[in-house]
Amino acid sequence: MRRYLLVLVFLASSLLAQNPTVQKSNTIENLRGVSVLAGGVAWASGTHGTYLRTTDGGNSWQPAQVPGAEALDFRDVEAFSAEFAYLLSAGPGEQSRIYKTTNAGKTWALQFTNKDPKGFFDCMAFWDRDRGVAVGDPVADSSGKLKFELIATEDGGKNWRPLPPDAIPPAVEGEGAFAASGTCIAVQGNANVWFATGGKVARVFRSTDGGKTWTVADTPIDHGPDSAGIFSIAFRDAIHGVIAGGDYKHPEQDGPHLAFSNDGGLNWTLSTAAPQRYFSGVAFAKPHSDSGAVIVVGSSQAAYEDGLSKTSSQKSWDWNLNAVSVSPTGEALAVGPKGLIVSIPTAH
């Protein structure tokens, strides 16, 4: 009998370990940014100038506000240690800003403020703690062509310079990026960068030289209305990438909402995994391995896909989540409305 009980306890523990676990965030703000590091360190961000930090794997979270940013919505956080992080707020005009801390939030430096009232920045990504890039929705250039706004830094954000608009293919009328999860742009290696779009088209822009030159590829992701398209993009190396999206106004609507690339983003193939509801965030579950497993999250479904060419999700959960991040060592956290933070297992 004792051995039987031990087996039951072991099985129950194993099943529990395969399911997401809600963490106590100590906030009720809506969260859309998350950055998970090794060693139990993670940052999250959200409405009313809020950011959160944990150094013990989420056993305890410390929420705080950036002084003077109480009206801002931090849609993206990119962290490099327990002390060092960048925040990006999304919004029209001067509501789009970038802040940086090097002392765990004791002080924040305002590094960039968008001065164009028609501009709207969506997300950012960093190759390392000094070199990063951010993307904003299209604005008309001097010739009247619509171009996505791209700014980059090579000195830790002391200077954010516009990338030459002439090198960027024109945007289509009605095309934009989405600030839903801080993951509409991705970087890899020393100079690879991709960003994803939606609206009238669903495309992926690609540069292999840090933004000096660009190409653009159409994708089969659902698009059309301004609420539909690609919301998130991730690459695990220079070749293998994944995009996820849908229509946030119709989150229960089925795909095509998930696609992958095996040639660096030049071509995209629809995933056969099902169902494919609206996804606002995607991340590789094992980023430093040859595994094609991904985690996708959205307002009506989260799922662990063991392979993008398979026909069904290995695991799915009815969670309302906005963004997901996976550490280099495989720890995954997702965030959502009302302070929701969920730990998602990556070992299946």
Q: What does this 3D model show about the protein?
A:
By secondary structure, this protein is mainly beta. The protein is 5% helix and 40% strand. The chain has one helix spanning 2-17; strands at residues 21-23, 31-36, 42-46, 50-54, 62-65, 74-79, 85-89, 97-101, 109-113, 121-126, 132-140, 146-153, 161-162, 175-176, 185-188, 192-196, 198-199, 203-207, 215-218, 228-235, 241-247, 258-261, 269-270, 281-284, 294-297, 302-305, 315-317, 323-326, 332-335, 341-344. A 4-stranded antiparallel β-sheet has the order 1-30-29-28, with no helix packed on it. A 4-stranded antiparallel β-sheet has the order 2-3-4-5, with no helix packed on it. A 4-stranded antiparallel β-sheet has the order 6-7-8-9, with no helix packed on it. The chain is globular. The relative contact order is 0.13. Mean pLDDT is 92; it is low at 1-17.
Spell out the key features of this protein.
single chain; 348 residues; mainly beta; four-stranded antiparallel β-sheet; 1 helix
Summarize the structure.
The chain is mainly beta. It has 1 helix and 30 strands. 49% of the residues are buried.
What count of helical segments does DSSP give? 1
The profile of the biggest β sheet is: 4 strands, antiparallel
From the alpha carbons, calculate the radius of gyration and give it in angstroms. 19 Å
* Regions with little confidence, pLDDT below 50 for 5+ residues: 1-17
Q: What's the mean pLDDT score?
A: 92
* Amino- and carboxy-terminal Cα gap: 29 Å
Cα shape = globular
Strand order of the biggest β-sheet: 1-30-29-28
Beta percentage is 35-45%
Total number of beta strands: 30
Q: What is the helix fraction of residues, given as a range? A: under 10%
Structural class, judged by helices and strands? mainly beta
